Amino acid sequence: MATVQEAINLLVSGANRFDSLRTKNYPTDSKEYQASIGRIMGDLDKALSIINDRISHCDVLLQDTSISAEARGWLAEVQGNFSGIRDMIVIDFTRGQQGSILSKAAHGLAAAQVNWQKAHAALMADVARLKPATQAVLRQAA
Questions:
Q1: CB of 27 within 8 A of CB of 33?
Q2: How far apart are CA 121 and CA 38, in angstroms?
Q3: Which range of residues forms the domain containing residue 127?
């Protein structure tokens, strides 16, 4: 399974590619420009897939009523972090300044990753009480 760090790396790479495109001043119909945009969009799709996987993991984990209040709070925080980052990418990306948006999203993912680690630690403290399906998702999302 892909990691949040991989998504961060993809977003940083995309931001750097946009900055590079801006300095090279390729015409938007040039092969070089189109190839770069294609790579950026491919990386962006991969990053969004990772983010959506994490949101789904949070959804599943939050359904287990045996999760402690602390773990539930961290999971809700993480889910909000990832949802906000996804929305920023999907909505704001089309409005311009893509490199800046991808950079902000990468920083946001780094903060979300820290919150995920806190949620994971709280969940691991509860692991014996969790349902087997929840334990499986937890192992997958680790």
A1: yes
A2: 38
A3: 4-141
